[in-house]
Design a protein that fits this description.
heterodimer, A: mainly alpha, Non-ribosomal Peptide Synthetase Peptidyl Carrier Protein, Chain A, 0% strand, B: alpha/beta, TIM Barrel, 2 domains, 8-stranded parallel β-sheet, 3-stranded antiparallel β-sheet, 13 helices, 41% helix, 15% strand, globular, binds flavin mononucleotide
Chain lengths: 74, 314
């Protein structure tokens, strides 16, 4: 569930098909820079009602999923 | 002129001298602080011992407030954070990322924290983390830059956060200061203009090149590497751009080509291998002057302009 939601938010951020997003997809491959990643992080915070307090050391969609899972205890 | 920034930082002029790697040492920062602005020592990638020595040198020259700029991608960033806390540095500015994980300990030590931001998202993030103000830096600036320009960025950041906003990028005189106050800023951070301060210890050729530079004399390199840098057009930056356009050149090779280039410009004035970082305002920088005079001139000019501005609305 966490992955699906995050994949959708990431796909929205760069106008790509959600089917193309995997855990291995890196932000660099998607041409998302650090400022874009902050926007994605803020969208995720809103969706999951959590605070991530990060944005810098995230490289892939999988990193985001792991972070959200630790925060939500999912 | 007295703004919220003067009160927040305990300074006379609402002017911060930007932290500039290899450039902003104790001599420059002390002159700016003693002259009524906020002088900043750049920690860049330097070891903690160097930064501690600069702090001590500055304190020997002035008891006015000053700051340290922490580059968040420095390999020794944790040590620098510990150092500024131990030294009770009054102000910290941060560059190259989100400082959020360091903000609580800096705040607990009584340090005023001003992160440099280049988007509304970044500004909101640092506001939530407890920053005291933000420095909104537009892409006109010298050094590592973001995409948005000051004119569009500053008012959007003013709308996005409740914190005081300091504008940076492209501001080199009183017109720039007055203009960004109209956009909602409470002060400015200048880098390029201070490069030609008398107390700035960069190589004389660097200063000459800034003074000679016109409006169109800067370019942005490093876009392919994801961290664009604005610097003067020189044999080095032209060669960098050429390499950047060469698909045979790997990112690692490009990084290696650019490494150490700012130091070569600052210390050796080396035009072939040096990267003379400078902002688009370099064409406004006309002479070598004491830092105090730079700030007094800037504020006086801004005051005159702001007083005269009512004539437009009669
Ligand atoms: C030579 C040079 C080095 C810089 N190094 C840093 C740095 O280490 N950390 C940082 O946060 N900003 C750095 N900057 C940005 C300045 O602090 C400042 O925000 C910028 O110069 C403002 O724009 P202006 O050049 O148009 O005045 C540097 C700028 C220059 C010109």
């Amino acid at each position: 569930m966490v992955f699906e939601k995050i994949a959708q938010l990431v796909a929205d951020a760069c106008d790509m098909d959600v089917k193309e997003v995997t855990k291995e997809t890196s932000f660099e491959d998607m041409e998302l820079d650090s400022l874009d990643v902050i926007e994605v992080v803020m969208a995720i915070e809103e969706e999951f009602k959590i605070n991530l307090e990060t944005g810098d050391d995230l490289k892939t969609v999988g990193d985001l999923v792991k972070l959200v899972e630790t925060k939500t205890g999912a | 002129m007295k703004t919220h920034l003067c009160e927040l930082l305990g300074i006379r002029y609402p002017i911060i001298q930007g932290g500039m790697a290899w450039v902003a040492d104790a001599a420059l920062a002390a002159a700016v602080s003693e002259g009524g602005g906020l002088g900043i020592i750049a920690a860049a990638n330097a070891p903690a011992d160097y930064v501690r020595a600069e702090i001590n040198k500055l304190r020997a020259k002035t008891d006015k407030p000053f700051g340290v700029n922490i580059m968040l991608i420095s390999p020794v960033v944790d040590e620098i954070v510990e150092l500024v806390i131990a030294e009770k540095v009054p102000v910290v500015t941060t560059g190259a990322g989100l400082p959020n994980k360091y903000v609580p300990s800096l705040k607990a030590a009584g340090i005023t924290v001003l992160p440099v931001v280049s988007s509304c998202g970044m500004a909101k993030m640092v506001e939530r983390a407890g920053a005291d103000a933000v420095i909104a830096e537009g892409g006109e600036a010298g050094g590592h830059i973001g995409d948005l320009n000051t004119m569009a960025l500053v008012p959007q950041i003013c709308d996005a956060v409740k914190l005081p906003v300091v504008a940076a990028g492209g501001i080199a005189d009183g017109r720039g200061l007055a203009a960004v106050m109209m956009l909602g800023a409470v002060g400015v951070q200048m880098g390029t203009r201070f490069l030609t301060a008398e107390e700035c210890s960069i190589h004389p050729r660097y200063k000459e090149k800034i003074i000679a530079a016109k409006d169109i004399d800067t370019i942005t390199t490093g876009k392919r590497l994801g961290h664009p840098v604005r610097a003067l057009k020189t044999p080095f930056t032209r060669a960098f751009l050429k390499n950047e356009g060469d698909p045979g050149m790997t990112p690692e090779e490009l990084e290696a080509f650019g490494s150490g280039a700012l130091r070569k410009a600052v210390q050796e004035g080396d035009e072939k291998g040096g990267c003379f970082m400078a902002g688009q305002s370099c064409g406004l920088v006309k002479r070598i002057q004491p830092a105090e005079e730079i700030m007094r001139e800037t504020v006086t000019q801004a005051e005159d302009i702001l007083k005269g501005a009512v004539r437009w609305v009669k």
